Amino acid sequence: MTAARGRRESELAAGWAAAQGRVAEAARAAGRDPSDVRIVAVTKRFPASDIEILARLGVTDVGENRLQEARDKRALLADLDGVAWHFIGQVQTNKAKAVSAIADQVDTVDREGLVKALARGAVAHGRTVGCLVQVSLADDPGAAMNRGGCDPAEALAIADEVAAAAGLQLMGVMGMAPLHGDPARAFDVLAGAAARIRAEHPAATTISAGMSGDLAEAIAAGATQVRLGTAILGQRPAVG
C-alpha cells in the first residue's frame, strides 16, 4: 500500500465514523433508532478507488449524478459486491435507458414520461430498478430554482405509475429542502406525500431527505435515508 493510499483510507474512515455519529445523534434527539436511517455516500467527482475503500468500511449505498461518470466507475468496480448505486441527478428522458443499465435505484423520478422510459430500459436490460418519487419542496413548485421534483399533489399518481411498471420497484419518496426557507416545514410536506403514497403502497417506506446542512430536521421529520458527500469524503475535486 502506498503512503497516499494509506492516508486516504484513514481520511475516509474518519469521515465515515463522523457521519455515522452525526446521524446517530440526530436520530436519538428525534426519539428514533439510528439503525433506521441509511446513509448514501455521495461520491460524485471522487475516484472509484474511494468507493472501494468506503465499501470496506461498511458503506452500502453510494450516489452519483452524472451518467458517464457513474457508468465508468461501475465498470471499474464490476466485482464490488454489497454496494447499491443510486442515481441522484436529474434524468433526461433520452438517457433513461442508459441510467437503468447502471443504477440500482433512481432517486429523482418526477414525471410519467420518465417512469415509462426507465421501465423500458429496465426490461431491456433484464433488471429491476428501485425508484423514489422526487417531490418538489419549493413554496412555488414551478419556480426555476426548485431543485427538481413533482408537485406534491402529483406524487401519488407518479407513484402509482412506478408501482404498475414492469422492471421498476417503488421504494418511496425523495425531496430536497429549498436553498432558502425553513427545512423543517419543507420536510413536513415530504412526510405528508410519503404518508399518502404509503397508504396505497405499504412497501414504499423510504423517505430520502437531508444533507449536511439540514440533517437533523430531515431525521426529525422521518427521513430513512440521508445523503452525505463532503462530510464523509472531504473537499470535492474540482471539475476538469
Unreliable segments of 5+ consecutive residues: none
Shape: globular
The structural domain count equals: 1
CATH architecture identity: Alpha-Beta Barrel
The total beta strand count reads 8
Going by helix content, strand content and strand pairing, the class is: alpha/beta
Level-1 CATH class name: Alpha Beta
The helix/strand series, from N terminus to C terminus, equals HEHEHEHEHEHEHEHEH
Rg from C-alpha positions? Answer: 17 Å
CATH H-tier superfamily: Alanine racemase
Counted by DSSP, the helix tally is: 9
* N- to C-terminal distance: 27 Å
**CATH topology label:** TIM Barrel
Helix content: 40-55%
Strand content: 15-25%
> Whole-number average pLDDT?
95
Major sheet description: 8 strands, parallel
Query: Widest sheet: strand order?
Result: 7-6-5-4-3-2-1-8
